[in-house]
Design goal:
By secondary structure, this protein is mainly alpha-helical. It has two domains: 11-49, no CATH class; 51-82, no CATH class. It is elongated and about 60 Å long. The longest helix is centred in the middle third of the chain and has 19 residues, at 30-48. The protein contains five helices and no strands. Helix content is 63%, strand content 0%. The chain has helices at residues 2-13, 30-48, 54-65, 69-73, 75-82.
């Protein structure tokens, strides 16, 4: 019974593309952007993953030395959130 319901639901949902049918990208618009950003950032991630990377090692030791190291990592997030942004109307 459940398989029949799923089959009917899929047939109704994929009954064509948006103006005439039901399938659309309205709430999934960000997925192609995530894919492109992931592909573009892959060389950077591979570079940062190397064991002898000085940038990662310095950041890691800085955050581990301080008892508030984890909180230091959140400062850019807090500053970005509290920044006033005026969007055009």
């Amino acid at each position: 019974m459940l398989l029949l319901y799923i089959f009917i639901l899929i047939r109704l949902y994929f009954n064509g593309i948006y103006p005439k049918g039901n399938f659309s990208w309205h709430h999934l618009w960000f997925l192609p952007y995530l894919l492109l950003m992931s592909i573009a950032a892959t060389p950077l991630f591979i570079y940062l993953r190397k064991e002898n990377n000085a940038i990662v090692q310095k950041t890691k030791t800085l955050l581990e030395k301080s008892p508030l190291g984890l909180y230091l990592a959140t400062i850019p997030l807090i500053l970005g959130k509290t920044k006033k942004i005026n969007y055009p109307n």
